[in-house]
Design brief:
- By secondary structure, the chain is mainly α.
- It is flat, with a radius of gyration of 11 Å.
- It has helices spanning about 10-20, 25-40, 45-50.
- Helix 1 runs antiparallel to helix 2 and helix 2 (about 25-40) runs antiparallel to helix 3.
- It has 3 helices and no strands.
Length: about 60
């Protein structure tokens, strides 16, 4: 891991999102995945990331 958040990659953010989801922290998983989605160039990939980690505060089922 790096000390500078600017050095983090999309993969780093997705790894963090998976870890947070596994730890039962869905909102943190969502935030990390959202940052990953912002960093990808392909809109379809960004949509896919966002679909995997929906915002638990607005997801009604």
């Amino acid at each position: 891991m790096t000390d500078d958040p600017a050095d983090l990659t999309v993969a780093d953010y997705l790894d963090g999102a998976r870890e947070m989801a596994a730890a039962g922290r869905p909102f943190l998983a969502h935030l990390l995945a959202e940052e990953a989605a912002r960093r990808v160039d392909d809109p379809a990939t960004a949509r896919g990331i966002r679909a995997q980690y929906t915002d638990p505060t607005t997801d009604r089922g």
